[in-house]
Every structure is written in C-alpha cells, then in structure tokens.
Design a protein that fits this description.
Length: about 120
C-alpha cells in the first residue's frame, strides 16, 4: 500500500505566503511525477504545478512566478511554496504522486486535501 499525507496550508492575507508539504510512503519502487492540484468551490480540479523525478517543473499560468514546486527524492516529499497569494488561490489543494510499485506497475495516488484560504 501507498500513503500520501499532506501538511501545511491554512489561512493567509493577500500578498502573504504559505507552504504545503506532501510525503509519500509505503510499497514504492520509484516515484515519477509529483504534483499539486486545487479545486475551488463549484470549479473543476486543476493542475497547479508538477515536477518530474529529474526536477523538470511545470506551472499553470496563473501561479507562474508566485509558486515554486520542489521535491526531495530521498524523503519522497514534494513541496509547494506559495508567495504573493491572491484571493483566487483559495481552494482545497491536493497532492498527487505517480508511483511505480514493486511489480513495476504505475498508479496515481492522491493526498487527503488541504484547505488554503486567502482573505483580508
């Protein structure tokens, strides 16, 4: 089994910062793409940022230059540093990891979700 546990998030003022963390554990051979998605009320879930195991990153246009995704492969952990937060960043944020198990099959695993609220 694979577990994905998120931490961080909470509330911030516009222009403020928050950091999310996500640890993947369990029966893992290798972790490939790790990413952060978000879902605002009444909206579809969208990909915010992703990072490959070689460090290549990708961001949705709305967070480019404000959010930074990073990972520590030794700790099976991915982070999302969110700066210059805006009210439109308010959403539930989900971590997602593409994991290769000991039988070499691939599966996607999701974290439990973390609320991020940006409000004055």
């Amino acid at each position: 089994q694979v577990q994905v546990v998120q931490s961080g998030g909470g509330s911030a003022l516009p222009g403020g910062s928050l950091r999310l963390s996500c640890v993947v554990s369990g029966n893992i051979f290798r972790i490939y793409t790790m990413g952060w998605h978000r879902q605002a009320p009444g909206e579809k879930r969208e990909l915010v940022a992703s990072i490959e195991d070689d460090g290549i990153t990708d961001y949705v246009d709305s967070v480019q230059g404000r959010f930074t995704i990073s990972r520590d492969n030794a700790k099976n952990t991915v982070y999302l540093q969110m700066n210059y937060l805006k009210s439109e960043d308010t959403a539930v944020y989900y971590c997602k990891a593409r994991v290769q198990g000991p039988t070499y099959s691939f599966d996607d695993y999701w974290g439990q979700g973390t609320q991020v609220t940006v409000s004055s």
